[in-house]
Amino acid sequence: MTERPILTAWDGESFIPVNQGHARMADQDYVVGQTYRVAPVEDRSARSHRHFFASVNEAWRNLPEELVERFPSAEHLRKYALIRAGYRDERSIVCASKAEAQRVAAFIRPMDDFALVIVKEAVVIVYTPKSQSLRAMGKREFQASKDAVLEVVSQIIGVSRPTLEQNTSAAA
How does pLDDT run across 101-148, given as a tens digit for each residue? Predict the structure, then answer.
């Protein structure tokens, strides 16, 4: 079974796919007579989505000179802020020594441009940002991640968050 959404309409007794395309998807993904959980999915606001990415882009364009090399693109800044804000996956590798941990970290760093790789004693910790795609995050989680990321980004560039948002309100 895939996790693609199938649009349905409630007719008072059952959920009916809204058109033939969604009916075909239901036939492919579900078994007649089997029970499935149904939960509402709130669509994210396209305006909020655009506002978020415009805000991150504006912040990136206004990075202090000393941070330009660290964040070569707005995507690097956004993903770093996701990690800092706690929207991340974490993996730890315990090594035999500090030297081995340094070698492992050096091996891992080039594998993912967006991963944050930290060495603590003989442990390598790899943080990777969570996806903010429509499939990965619903409306509430996206809004929470948006707020948290914009807070981190505003701290990085040294402006208050309302200033950051005011600069991009026309883009929303």
Answer: 999 999 999 999 999 999 999 999 999 999 998 878 888 999 999 999
- State how far the Cα of 169 lies from the Cα of 172, in Å rounded to an integer: 5
Strand residues in 8-157 grouped as ranges (E): 8-10, 15-17, 88-94, 116-120, 123-129
Structure tokens given for 139? 């409306």
The helix or strand, by DSSP H or E, that contains position 24, with its residue range, turns out to be helix 20-29
Question: Is 85:148 a contact under the CB 8 Å cutoff?
Answer: yes
Query: In angstroms, rounded to a whole number, what is the distance separating the alpha carbons of residues 57 and 69?
Result: 16
Name the pTM for this structure.
0.72
